[in-house]
Amino acid sequence: xxxxxxxxxxxxxxxxxxxxxxxxxxxxxxxxxxxxxxxxxxxxxxxxxxxxxxxxxxxxxxxxxxxxxxxxxxxxxxxxxxxxxxxxxxxxxxxxxxxxxxxxxxxxxxxxxxxxxxxx
Length: 120
Hints:
This protein has helices spanning 3-18, 22-29, 36-60, 66-92, 95-119. It contains five helices and no strands. The mean pLDDT is 91. Helix content is 84%, strand content 0%. The protein has one domain. By secondary structure, the protein is mostly helical.
């Protein structure tokens, strides 16, 4: 099994159980030193795919219903605006600073996950 397969499986699993799939993806992608836009694009396509693959499970669990669909529709404009703001922000950040920010945020997420695990 390749490191990409292991990272992908870990990200898919943690995304399904805790919406915490980003750390395994970032642990795999950061050493690749992809261009900033390739890093963002790869992450976006990966999580779009993972989220579509989770849909049948969420349907089976009854988590997709009228209320969740209405909430999603109401929040869709916010999601679009946040995405456009994120694209604008990322394009303004130099690649080195981008990677530094990703590593710091990944460290903070790791600390938060450890704290959550320790406090139950």
